[in-house]
Amino acid sequence: MESTEFLVRSAVILAVFGITLLIATYSTYAERKIAAFIQDRVGPNRAGPMGLLQPLADAVKLFFKEEFVPANANKFLFIAGPSLAMLTACMASAVIPFGNTILIDGQYINVQAIEVNIGILYIFGVVALGVYGIMIGGWASNNKFSLLGAIRAASQNISYELAMGMSIIALLLVSSSLSLRVIAQQQGETLFGISGMNWNIFYQPLGFLIFIICAFAETNRVPFDLPECETELIGGYHTEYSSMGMGLYLFAEYVNIFVASAVMATLYFGGYNFPFMYDLGLPHNLVTLIGTGVLFIKILMFIFFFMWVRWTLPRFRYDQLMNLGWKVLIPLSIANVIITAAVILISEQGLPW
């Protein structure tokens, strides 16, 4: 029995890692195709049918390009920066439940790489470490544009992590758990007479809005891409990088987009739960399989939204970015926590409205 669980858990870990890298790889292709569609162009169409081999061609190109290290750079830190950024990006997906449970030999096994009862804290801790990869790379490059980009990234992450954390606190008041699996399971309950529809988006719409705005800032995406602002900083913190150093930074961004999309889908949109999931009378393993597919559909929709916004909105000025974080999002997140706590207290005490 234990050997079966070990094999299944190992397979899940390898599958999560492989799917994370695969989706991040083809997110680069999707981004270019979506940009081409919005701008009335064709996009990549030479490497393979419809350009489907373009990400592989890009990877081969980056692998075989010369690895250039500036003369006055700190070589160890110059290499460690993108490595740390990529490592922390891949670590974050370990605690995300990509499905309910599968029944094998009478034993229920979680479709999740690692189950910890403080999954949200784990993700926040790992994501917070990711900015060190940017800071180290920007500082080690010994380039003023890289350093400015690194400083922007650090201050931006600090500013928006506060509002993101407060939005999560309001969600924790509703769910009473730090475990992503428990939060996902709670959303599988019945709401409006429909099983699998007790999604947190119905209870925390403002919290979700704050969270998704902060997710854009945490992943350095437009309109919050000030750390790599090409028009001002010539690429920002990765100005001096080439070959796979540049590739790891760019790839880590897409992995972070995938993780952010998976977290938002899990916390607010039911995760692997879907409408009528327990009313169809399907076998348990089939329901789990469908739920995993539904979760990935939700994730892909969020990834598309990230890309759609990139080619729709202009970049903020830096003072506008800071004003939004400190003067708008943080007060709103605090108000959301207070309102959520008041509603829960009133409902528990049975006090009249």
UniProtKB/TrEMBL annotation:
It holds the Pfam family NADHdh. The chain crosses the membrane at residues 6-29, 76-99, 119-141, 162-184, 248-269, 289-308, 328-347. It is a multi-pass membrane protein. It is an enzyme of class 7 (translocase). Keywords: Cell membrane, Membrane, NAD, Oxidoreductase, Quinone, Translocase, Transmembrane, Transmembrane helix, Ubiquinone. PANTHER family: NADH DEHYDROGENASE SUBUNIT 1, NADH-UBIQUINONE OXIDOREDUCTASE CHAIN 1. Belongs to the complex I subunit 1 family. NDH-1 is composed of 14 different subunits. Subunits NuoA, H, J, K, L, M, N constitute the membrane sector of the complex. This is NADH-quinone oxidoreductase subunit H.
